[in-house]
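Tokens help. One example:
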Amino acid sequence: MMRGPDAFTFADDPRTPIQVVVQPGPRRTTPAGVDLPEAADASVRTWANGMRTRDDGPDGSSVLLIGKYRRPGEIAMRLLSALPPLLVIPRAAHGESAVVSLLAEETVRNEPGQDLVLERLLDLLLVTILRARFIRPDADAPAWYRANGDPVVGPVLRLMHGHPDHPWTVAALAGRTGVSRATLARRFTDLVGTPPMAYLTEWRIDLAADLLKESDATIDSIARQVGYGSAFAFSAAFKRARRISPQRHRDRM
């Protein structure tokens, strides 16, 4: 798993000359920039040894399955930013083999709904990889991710993540977990690194940033989805956190 956005070379040996360059689009060219011919069926997504495969199987012995996210959202980056630039997880260390098999099968089906299935399988594969990484004792997982296992802070985080539109207070959160406000505030800050309300604000702003980019909802609607009573209050909070207005953020995306 490569975090990017740097380019990379995939080869059997560092001395092997580059044969195919994958450009945005995706578009395949020679190292000199000459376009390579596409197969008649552009929906086929599998390639083998630098060449697109046929429906009856790969032409060579090596097959690569490559999936990518062009621009991960703010929520995803909370986890991805904790990863090294290159991450290798041995197959024996996690249970992704079945997902990879399904992904390989789906790439050559060319049936209705293929794009949706491929997207969901890629999401599932990413989750299994991240989980396999962060459960390791030596993994540098984000503090909030580790805190999910705490009997007090974990439920509070799940309440915030699952219901960002609720008018949470420290007292309300403490009441849901059966501890005092002081205990929750101290324990949350110790484990997560920020006080509960500060974390909730960060989560709401990150969630709103994704909604502004991915949806056509109005700013007022997004404000209410992330727990603000009005577009004005939301805009002020967003600008305070990002130094840019919600509309300006949407325009840039």
